UniProtKB/TrEMBL annotation:
<protein>
    <recommendedName>
        <fullName>TfdA family taurine catabolism dioxygenase TauD</fullName>
    </recommendedName>
</protein>
<keyword id="KW-0560">Oxidoreductase</keyword>
<dbReference type="InterPro" id="IPR042098">
    <property type="entry name" value="TauD-like_sf"/>
</dbReference>
Length: 408
């Protein structure tokens, strides 16, 4: 089939000059007393989130901060994320007082780059309020797979429509919508702001009283979502993707009477021009209805990754050490569940599964073993595999994350 690349056919041309403000009803303001309490609790966590062996202790400490949130604050976040707009902005979130310069490269930080990790603790605490577990994809951070991503402008990536890019408007998307372990929630927490960089959000709530609400057109086989170019390039370089290359869910679908989004306007193929035109109308609608906010220091944006899509505007960094810097965290409720394993989509057959067991990489109930762990944590080990061993490793990665690991 000759699929049509949507973005190539419909270039991104939206000016994004008149963006409505983020709704006040979805903003939670922490009190000065709460900010101080959470600061002290974060400073009391002795673990370092950028040391793999200390991450679980750090997460445990952050969950204690989450437990200290008031019942009213917890209810506010839950209501708006689950049944409401699908996005919450939290203001007054404590940040580190003694900050170094904005890193020149995003992804993980050196464990000694910062003296304290207040922002990281708050990111994990806010994630815990969703009832989901933090994780990340192995390919993020150029394959260094940090639990917490530091997002900063990178000059050589200025035209990239993703982390590190800045010299363009970025198309709307749901985070990793094609992936079998798509995040349920995404949290962005500001450390330093760029006043001209706005994060834009669209919610399925905005479909009310529009033609999309009553659309009965069957588009179930019109589209395919595809993996980002970075993930494809890394697979070609010997780092298996660990999921199918495509997902065939439509950009907009109904579930139990409500809408769910599977949006990536920069990574969707269309079956024909009718599908292209349909998707273009949807993108026009989303661009016209979006709201925006600057992720400032002490502000966190929590997003339900199923009922919202988001993006950012282009901006102009100065590269003077004070540029835009925020943290990004992914959270998933069924992180260690096999329910989204590719066992049902032909990722392996009985012979391959038997071979994986013989290698000691997997158990008969489909759990990866500690023997395979080195390939998860050390990409160079995977690159050394050749022939059938490389093929089997690529299949084994479909079973990540393994118990005790947060890498997919």
């Amino acid at each position: 089939m000759n699929w049509i690349n949507y973005r190539s056919t419909k270039p991104l041309t939206y000016a994004r000059e008149n963006i409505a403000a983020f709704p006040e009803t979805c903003i939670l303001q922490l009190s000065a007393q709460e900010t101080e309490l959470f600061t002290q609790m974060a400073l009391s966590i002795k673990a370092n989130p950028y040391k793999t062996e200390e991450q679980e202790d750090f997460i445990l400490g952050a969950k204690q901060i989450a437990a200290a949130f008031s019942p009213a604050a917890r209810q506010f976040i839950d209501q708006h994320l689950q049944q409401g707009f699908g996005a919450v902005q939290v203001k007054g979130v404590p940040i580190d007082e003694d900050l170094p310069e904005t890193p020149s490269i995003g992804g993980p930080l050196s464990p000694d780059y910062k003296k304290t990790f207040v922002s990281e603790a708050m990111l994990m605490a806010l994630g815990a309020l969703t009832g989901a577990e933090p994780f990340n994809f192995r390919q993020e951070g150029q394959g260094k797979a940090p639990l917490i991503d530091n997002i900063v402008p990178v000059y050589k990536l200025k035209a990239q429509k993703g982390a590190g890019g800045f010299d363009n408007n970025f198309p709307f998307h749901c985070e990793s919508a094609w992936h079998r372990k798509r995040p349920d929630y995404l949290i962005l927490q500001g450390i330093r702001e760029a006043p001209d960089a706005r994060t834009l959000v669209f919610s399925t709530q905005m479909f009310e009283n529009s033609k999309w609400q009553d659309s009965s057109l069957d588009i179930s086989n019109w589209f395919r979502l595809k993996a980002p170019d970075l993930y494809v390039q890394m697979e070609q370089a010997g780092i298996p993707m660990g999921t199918a290359s495509y997902s065939f869910e439509p950009p907009l679908c109904r579930e139990a009477g409500s809408f769910r989004l599977n949006i990536n306007f920069n990574g969707t193929d269309c079956i024909d021009m009718d599908a292209v035109n349909w998707l273009s109308e949807l993108e026009d609608f989303i661009e016209a209805k979006t709201v925006g906010a600057v992720i400032a220091p002490g502000n966190a944006l929590l997003l339900n990754n199923h009922i919202t899509c988001h993006t950012r505007t282009g901006y102009t960094p100065t590269f003077n050490g004070m540029d835009r810097w925020f943290l990004r965290g992914y959270f998933k409720k069924d992180l260690w569940s096999g329910s989204t394993s590719t066992a049902n989509n032909g990722a392996y057959d009985a012979k391959a599964f038997s071979e994986l067991m013989e290698l000691g990489w997997i158990t008969n109930d489909g759990n990866l073993t500690s023997t395979f762990a080195k390939y998860i944590y050390h990409p160079e080990e995977t690159r050394q595999l050749t022939g059938r061993m490389a093929e089997l490793a690529a299949l084994a990665f479909h079973y990540t994350p393994m118990a005790g690991s947060r890498l997919v």
